[in-house]
Design a protein that fits this description.
- With 446 residues, this protein is an alpha/beta fold.
- The protein has one domain: Alpha-Beta Barrel (TIM Barrel).
- It contains 13 helices and 17 strands.
- The protein has an eight-stranded parallel sheet.
- Helix 12 crosses helix 13.
- The longest helix is centred in the N-terminal third of the chain and has 27 residues.
- The radius of gyration is 23 Å and the shape is globular.
- The chain starts with a helix and ends in an 11-residue tail after the last helix.
- The N terminus is likely disordered.
- Bound molecules: calcium ion.
- Calcium ion (CA) binds next to loops.
Length: 446
């Protein structure tokens, strides 16, 4: 009897689940025809594989096919349908561009005085890691504290390792608490070079017949060129932006229809437009990234008081158009969001994960940023769309596609996503809306 009752409960649950899935797909499908999309030129948005685009399912910035489901986040992003894959770039000691989100290979915990915190076995406690560098006794002496764009960080830094040493390391999942399933891929993948990502895009384009571009970001150009130091205290003094162009030229990969170059700093983008690219005989479209607060670090370093908020005024955007093709804003600059407050004024943890995040934040009225940028003739590629409950506003009711649909209706020209499968499905839906043909959204699984 108990078994039967459980079985009936299961059937009810299954039917409810199916109904919600069917409702979901009807809700997401469009029968109505729209005459054109609200993008800058009426074109469909581009899907940019953030740190690869399979990043929701594999450790970020991994490349390669090790058999079975052991394929890197960049490979998976392409498989999902990303139009561009995004390699972030930092530099090794021997001046090779490698693909990582920051020079820090693994960050360790420090106390309030900045002293390293050790565990019972005398090992430094890792606070956040994207590689297993802490496991290498040979590299223990390279642990150091550096100031990265105004913040002291204690850890191991890419510029203190040769490429051969970097290749001994393996990638591990950055967000194990949010993406625990991805930790089974820890320790498998090497840290890729920029050349490996170029080769992947080129090879997969030839194999699929689909255009696959790259969207490199020079990370911390002021740090590498002026502010940063090696372990022994000597200045790094590397122009990462010049290295990027040199590498693209050496690879004969300079088609402006296949590349966007992005940066949170301004002077390196201007330098690219005015000096570096003309000298190299190339002209690649540039994207000015816009953080939700603060200032570009090159402005801070040179005591320029301008902020990101100044850059996105109509006047600031006209300035950006003199060197860039588009902007890459934080999505909250387009659709602001904030948590609800309880009677004590404390934010409410809506999804009950013990933290306050976008997953607890309710959407506000959209800003005019997309139309302001379009008026200035700039494309708008927002960052970052993610399907995890931690990152998804409760207003989307657990349906990540609704967030894409909102931004596409607002006229977004492209989006960085950790889940290129969702990004691709949303783009197909937008294309279908131009035809008026009823389209059933399907999201491919990893
Ligand atoms: Ca929460």
């Amino acid at each position: 009897m108990l078994r039967l009752k459980s079985y009936l409960l299961f059937i009810c649950f299954f039917l409810a689940l199916s109904a919600s899935m069917i409702l979901g797909s009807i809700d997401s499908s469009r029968a109505s025809k729209v005459s054109k999309l609200n993008t800058l030129y009426g074109q469909p948005p581009i899907v940019i594989g953030h740190r690869g685009g399979g990043t929701g399912y594999r450790p970020e910035h991994t490349v390669g096919n090790l058999g079975g489901d052991r394929i890197g986040s960049h490979n998976l992003g392409i498989k999902f349908g990303a139009d561009y894959i995004e390699p972030d770039l930092v530099v090794t000691k021997d001046k090779v561009l490698i693909v990582r989100h920051e020079p820090v290979l693994s960050m360790v915990m420090t106390d309030s005085s900045g002293n390293i915190v050790y565990d019972a076995n005398g090992k430094p406690v890792v606070q956040q890691a994207t590689t297993n560098v802490a496991d290498f006794p040979d590299f223990a002496s390279r642990l150091t504290t550096k100031n990265l764009d105004g913040t002291n960080i204690t850890g191991w830094f890419a510029e203190d390792f040769t490429l051969a040493e970097i290749k001994k390391l393996r990638a591990i999942e950055r967000l194990p608490a949010i993406r625990p399933d991805n930790t089974r891929f820890n320790g498998l993948f090497q840290i890729p070079t920029f050349d490996e990502v170029i080769n992947l895009a080129r090879r997969r384009e030839a194999e699929t017949g689909r255009k696959i571009g790259i969207y490199p970001e020079t990370k911390h150009p002021t740090y590498f060129a002026q502010a940063g130091h090696y372990l022994d205290g000597t200045p790094i003094n590397v122009n990462i932006t010049q290295l990027l162009i040199d590498d693209l030229v050496a690879n004969k990969y300079t088609d402006p229809d296949h590349i966007f170059i992005q940066s949170f700093e301004v002077s390196n983008l201007r330098d690219l437009k005015e000096n570096i690219m003309p000298a190299a005989g190339v002209d690649i479209p540039l994207i000015q990234l816009i953080d939700s607060s603060g200032s570009p670090y090159d402005f801070v370093y040179h005591n320029n008081p301008q902020t990101y908020a100044d850059i996105i005024t109509p006047q600031g955007l006209r300035q950006v158009r003199t060197y860039a093709t588009g902007i890459g804003p934080d999505k909250r600059l387009i659709v602001p969001a904030a948590p609800q407050l309880d009677s004590n004024g404390k934010p409410i943890d809506i999804n009950g994960d013990g933290q306050i995040s976008d997953g607890d934040s309710f959407l506000r009225q959209p800003t005019s940023l997309i139309s302001d940028a379009h008026k200035a003739g700039l494309l708008v590629h927002l960052y970052t769309l993610r399907s995890d409950s931690y990152f998804l506003s409760p207003d989307y009711q657990g349906q990540p596609l609704r967030e894409y649909e909102q931004f596409i209706k607002l006229g977004i020209d492209g989006y960085f996503t950790d889940f290129a499968n969702f990004g691709y499905a949303a783009k197909q839906e937008a294309i279908a809306s131009l035809t008026g043909i009823r389209f059933k959204v399907s999201v491919s699984q990893p």
